[in-house]
Amino acid sequence: MSASNPSSVLPVDYWHRLDDGRIQCDMCPRFCKLRDGQQGLCFVRARQGDRMVLTTYGRSSGYCVDPIEKKPLNHFLPGTAVLSFGTAGCNLACKFCQNWDMSKARQMDVLADEASPETIARAAKALGCHSVAYTYNDPVIFMEYAVDVADACHEVGVRSVAVTAGYITEQPREVLYAHMDAANVDLKGFTEEFYYRLTGGHLQPVLDTLIYLKHHTQVWVELTTLLIPGHNDSEQELDQMTRWVVERLGPDVPMHFTAFHPDWKMTDTPPTPPATLSRARRIAIDNGVRYAYTGNVHDSRGGSTYCHHCGALLIERDWYVLGQWNLTAEGRCKACGTPCAGVFEARPGHWGARRQPVRLADFAA
Ligand code: SF4
Ligand SMILES: [Zn+2]
Fold it and tell me: Is 151 exposed, middle or buried (0-12, 13-18, 19+ CB in 10 A)?
């Protein structure tokens, strides 16, 4: 499909006209101010004439079945398969981007696959996926498509997962999350300086999203922080971040500390040592976070789930493969009966570590 095919262009809400004739997009705290024909920083929302449009409705950069632990979500349907897809563009400009081939795509050439929401739902169901994940880039910028896919998936009993930086304004935030069942939100650092210097965004809107999700929705939330040596991994920053999480979100929100690999505009920064991830996990637990994990490294202890009350091993993980399962059908610790926070089925899934690319055309009606 060519970039100009009208079927991928959808007029959208969340903008207003300025006195100087420009239109301001109010979807995310970037508040891009656009003249006719200009694209926003995210590349995929643009002004066409007197309106804002989403230029990538119904198009994706590819589909893949993954383990849900890879999103990462450790307390949402563990062991099950999730159908993952993304589009192009992003509303942050992280210098450390680990997905830049898609998120920085200005051209539509990465958007090889087109699929209606119904086709995606049909594929997810046929492939045995318990959920669909909006990932690789941020569903905030393709929200209208994500919401339609989520509705089609709910029709067939498949749930929806947003993998997001949480950089969204109040009104669309409510709309997006009314359709989501779970979210993994990046809390990329805990200083305004880090957000401003390395992502081009601001910290407070992300914190606002987290508070909204936790206190005003039923969405299951986990957090991910990519630890970048020398930038967001100090004892003090991690201490402040994890204290804030416990105080403002509560002790049951799982935190994932993942390893940075030199990429995009930060190729001179070394990869994160595994000891840094273990230290972050320890700081989180000491500050009252009940479920803290290391990620992107081989660390069975740091990847497994333990009962916060008696310390028993609840869900053993080796990379993305589940081992021992010591939860009751109701999601309680078999040793002491304490509930484990999360969304669990009576039995674990057994998708394992497989990553299976999918051709959506095979599932078209
Ligand atoms: S969604 Fe895109 S166009 Fe709208 S304010 Fe954010 S970056 Fe700009
Ligand atoms: Zn227990």
Answer: middle
Which ligand lies nearest to the CA atom of residue 335 in the structure?
A: 2
pTM over cut 0.85: yes
> To test ligand 1's pocket by mutation, which of 10, 12, 25 has the most ligand atoms within 8 angstroms of CB?
25
Which amino acid residue places its CA nearest to atom 3 of ligand 1? 40
Question: Hey, is 43 helix, strand or coil?
Answer: coil
Measuring CA to CA, how many Å separate 261 from each of 13, 20, 96, 272? Answer: 37, 44, 8, 7
Q: For residue 291, how many C-alpha atoms fall within 13 Å in the half-sphere facing its CB? A: 26
For residue 308, the ligand closest to its alpha carbon is 2
Q: What distances in angstroms separate CA 309 from CA 6, 145, 254, 270, 324, one per listed residue?
A: 56, 41, 15, 37, 18
User: Which residue ranges have their beta carbon within 6 Å of ligand 1?
Assistant: 25, 27-28, 30-32, 40-42, 45, 91, 141
- Rounded CA-CA distance 117/44 in Å is 18
CA 92–ligand 1 middle distance (angstroms): 9
Q: Could you read off the pLDDT of 177-233 as tens digits, one per residue?
A: 999 999 999 999 999 999 999 999 999 999 999 999 999 999 999 999 999 999 999
Ligand 1 atom, smallest distance to 44 CA = 2
Q: Which two tokens stand for residue 294?
A: 């290391």
